[in-house]
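Internal tracking record. Fields below are filled automatically when a chain is submitted to the structure queue. Please do not edit lines marked as system-generated. If the sequence contains nonstandard residues, flag them in the REMARKS field before resubmitting.
Queue: standard
Priority: normal
Entity type: single polypeptide chain
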Amino acid sequence: MALFYALNKLDSTQYTEVRLILGDQLNASHSWFGEKRENVLYVMMEMRQETDYATHHIQKVLAFFAAMRSFAKALSDKHDVLYITLDHQGNKQTLTDNLDMVLNHCHITSLLYQAPDEWRLDEQLAQYSRPDTSVSMVDTEHFYTQRDALSTYFKSTDNLLMENFYRRIRKSHGYLMEGDKPKGGKWNYDHDNRKKLPSKVEVPDPLLFDNEVTDIYQLLQQQGIKTIGKVARHDDDDNVVLGWPINRKQSRRLLAFFIEHCLPDFGRYQDALSERGWSLFHARLSFSMNSKMLSPREVVESAIKAHDDNPERVNLAQIEGFVRQIIGWREYIRAIYWAKMPDYAQHNKLQHQRQLPGFYWSADTKMACMRHAISQSLEQAYAHHIQRLMVTGNFALLAGVNPDEVDAWYLGIYIDAIEWVELPNTRGMSQFADGGILATKPYVSGGNYINKMSHYCKDCHYNVSQKHGQGACPFNVLYWHFIDRHKQRFANNHRMSMMYRQWDKRDAEERKAILNTAENYLIHIQEL
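SYSTEM-GENERATED OUTPUT FOLLOWS
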């Protein structure tokens, strides 16, 4: 079989069926690939449509293109593959125009595609039709649940709690179960997994790969693709090197590395904030899973096996915290996305309108926690969930930033950010713009939480102990500003009532001083 980079190299009379593979559908185990058929042509495309709908991190574009090219090459060992590069002479740069080009050339009677994970692509393909061509969608064979999982798992009157969703999946698959009861007698060990990282605990160096991608980097420059962030690494010959996995073999190596070196301490320190390492004990498997080079099932079951084989080394709290993130949160987020789109992308229940501060793109800020989280994101295209939720996301929410701008930043800057997973996490959990569909309270905190989970505050320009006035921690004063301006909405929220009682007990002059400091910071937000 063969890999083609130009239409004129194809025998236009040979193929009657095209099977489209999108850039995040690199699932080598898909049933499509189990049979060889001479009349089937697999098609993959690099397009401006995908590079330009957001301003992506340079490593994100490099990783997707490198992984797509690697997948196409491997697939061509058994199947015919047409791969349209970004600079292909006939590339129309949009999905449907390119499909027209291919189908016209080959006189195809059948087009099959795997279910897209993003609403915009799903709509684009659902509306695509041609005379004399049958267009059909098949499952990606990747997720545990279907798109309509919310209606399957919840009644219309139920609260859409992730915990209930998670327990149902655990029961149905028998993960960490003893009969119909959770192993160890508890469903959730989150309380055991909130520890600050002690200085005596050794942090493993992250496993990085030496994927030389200079040709793709030069292609992006030649085509004028706008990106953010840094390429991170060059080798001794000044070639651009990508440390992220770009094929299934490397992804499985990263999974094995996580299980061996990180999983024993993952849950314990999963919420820790530290400058001692940019990945700490986190798996960094999200890019491999979201591009489908790894399946969630093999990740979960490999991790559970490590616990079963040596429960003293990988205890129940560590493995439960990891399993919950994948079969609970990841599947739940996807279910929310498909149940609530397209309206979900427009939610702004708190009516926040402020522009995203410029330091989100430069890391030029005097706030130590923000500087580190943003710098790391620009350098590595990665930050772990607490950096995203309780540092950069927390600040944007406290400052009243328009969720459209927050979405655009998160969607672009992180290597694992695809809209189905980014949008609910950002607009829902992080910014509470959905008004409580996904979370029962806003995830906001003052500087004390960051101080509790990190060592940032001791070397910060701002004083985490100062309540108001110039030099007070911006998280402190903006937190109380948020509490005050949204009192009508949240005062009766049972999870926030204690904070409102604390605020109301403060001296009126002190409240005024805090709010004045916050207002001054917001006026000069670019200088923080």
